[in-house]
Amino acid sequence: MNPGIEKYEIKFDFDLKELTYTSHERIFLSGEWKDLKLDAVKISIDRITHNGKELKFETGNDYVLVKGNFKDNDVIDIDFHAKVSDTLMGLYFSKTKEGTMITTQFESNGARMAFPCVDHPAYKAVFSITAVIDKEYDAISNMPPKRVEVSDRKVIEFQDTPRMSTYLLYIGVGKFRYEYEKYRDIDLILASLKEIRSKYPLEIAKRSIEFYEKYFGIPYALPKMHLISVPEFGAGAMENWGAITFREVALMATENSGSLMKQNAAITIAHEIAHQWFGDLVTMKWWNDLWLNESFATFMSYKTVDSFSKQWDVFADFIRSETGGALRSDSLKNTHPIEVDVKDPDEISQIFDEISYGKGASILRMIEDYTGSEEFRKGIAKYLNDHKYGNAEGSDLWTAIEEVSGKPVKRVMEYWIKNPGYPVITVRKDGKKFRFTQDRFFLDGTRGEGKWPIPLTVITGSGKKSILMEDTAEVEDLIKVNANNSGFYRVAYDSESFATVMKNYDKLSNLDRWGIISDLYAFLISGRISVDDYLSRIKGFLDDADHLVVEEVSSQLTGLYLLKPESKKIAELASSYLRSQVARLGDKKKGEDDKISKLRGIVTQDLAMVDDAFAKDLSSSFSNLAADPDLALARSIAVAKTAGISELAKAANSYSDDEIRVRIIAAMGWCNITDLKSVFGLIDDGTIRKQDMLYVFSTMPSNPNGRDFFFSNIDRIVALMEHAFEGTGYTSRILENAIPYIGLSKYDEVKKKAEQIRKPSYSVGINKGLETLEIVRKLYNKL
Description:
The protein has 28 helices and 30 strands.
């Protein structure tokens, strides 16, 4: 019988003044063990016994080794103590003006920072948790309390969990405020240190559970679900089974919040609740299938929100953020397959990226379109029923969908998940036919090898035509390739084919039009089309008022401006287009569509970046940001460029609401180089909280005046990020974003510095940043 863990019984006794804890742990073994090696980081082991007999053990930086032969049903007792961490990983604390909170973030390998365990997703076990705390505090875990005793201190013993992976365990301690709802017999509980202003998050949770129960045909497995607001949190949210944690901003949304916040909160909540089935009930065997959890929850969150809020047009956001981000990242040579061979824990954090989330989710959307939505749903339900309370691999899912649909899903999916990159389909008019060929698309313009089995869709005069394109294909009638942009590939039309597509403009959905514009930009960057060709073709979209089209065009023109602000033709086009959009949208109207409110915020902030005169005018409306939260970032950027950081810092301290605060902090990256020197002081005094540093460090390199400052302080920025966001991959993403900008004027210095600071935990970001720098340097010289 293979060795395993049957159960952990752990009692945590917290000292909330010293921020330490002592623990007694009982580990119930299954199978035969030759020595017991447990993962343990920054934990002091006091004593280990077996049947009352003290055992010898040795410890290293990340393990404790218990010597001996152990058999089925043996029980190991461990006494240990540790500090509550001051990072945002493991079992850590957050101090705010509302009080101290102890919370956990264990994905991917943070459980070992809280207690000795076999910290591996395939080693599922039952957890029996007890918390001993000061009596004025409360504690939350995955299950409801079984027993609560209060004397000098409070003892809360929780019910046993189902079998689950270590990374899904949750322990939280704080002076919580609560709001309650019921869905059937399930208790839905919103928990926060702050005053709770709305049941909006609980309403989203109810709708999400209802949707998933119907979609999967499997009831939610636990008696309760907490949505827990965490003041400082490295991740955006975490799917701990029955005790889901979120950044405060996600759970502060109300019916009156800005449209962007309401939508983002709904998608985030729906994403984490999808994991309660896909990830928690059925868990990947190892982190190489991380994408299976994340891409599925990403795809399903949009399906869920779309089911109860059509007015948001969330699949427009899906293809722009998830598909668009993944197409960009996956066109680099420094990409990776969806399924990654993960060996070292340092590698895990860096695959929580656009490939694992966005590409995986986009491939699932492509497969759903290929098999049919009902066959896809039945395949998912079969997979979950076959593997519930256990572990599975990606191939198990493809097998289930193939069995239900009768289509070669496994062969198609195996190619798409095991190979990096994606194809570009070249369309050439040849007499009366349109011929399709494929090669791998690289953003640096090189032509790659590869023959993807592509579930190709073509819009024709007689409707949608579907082809499984293995190498080449042809059609006699064409309106557009890639209907609704359901496929994860780009399409390069020759001039005659492009003219045919544009002639049928009014027959294309906004998703179709987005696909054409997105491809044009990629072809410009890669050198497949010239700057003049790009500008000529993009003009065909400038009068389109659809929110998705306007967002994409605005993003592209602003991006080109930020790359080369001194390019007169780009600056003039970007400014005139954005000014026309701001004028068209006008002032906010009572009861207007959320899509319009959100779009106004986007084009206004883009114009504030591009046009200094506009920013100066806009800065005068800074005083009441709460009046229109969708304009908060635009107005804050305007103030950053005109009044400076002291005004922003004062405003940040006056708003307790994260919806506004994080936008003010993000705008600080747009200050001048003198003001940027104050950023580190604002981090030290708590005006910029640890979790919010990434906002200002993300925007700083976009600001042409912030690039030299970022480069001069890169060591300090990396040190701050690495301490706060250990194990999350955020440092890697910050560097990936920054290097192409800061390297434009300091090419040799940035390349040298990148090698000096390189470490395994953010090496991927450095590689991608340096590759992108080479690409944008070529484009810079053409603009």
